[in-house]
Write the structure tokens for this entry.
Amino acid sequence: MTDSQEQRKSGNASERINFDFLELLNSQFPINDVHRPLILRSASDFAQTLNIHVNHLNRVLKKIHNKSTSIIISEKILQESKLLLKSGNWSISEIAFALGFSEVSHFNNFFKKKTKMNPSQFRK
């Protein structure tokens, strides 16, 4: 196989992995049921589901998006948390649980680190 054939094959595989990852990530949203929390939350969760090594998944996504797998996941979780907070239908603890946080304080810390405000401040 020539170098260009190898690159095309690699590119197609990378595109497929990227597509499968994004499909899997987006399939978990929107969250409509507080009793059905996110299952796939970490890079290793996604890699295991996609049957690839976590380092390979990270390399592919970094090449395509210029972001790590973890950052892409956390950005999606943050986006969903903002939507849930603005809708005002659920308590902050329900939102934290639905997003897969084991403790409300973990969600508060995550949200504050990303937005510079806590969830209740954002909600107002």
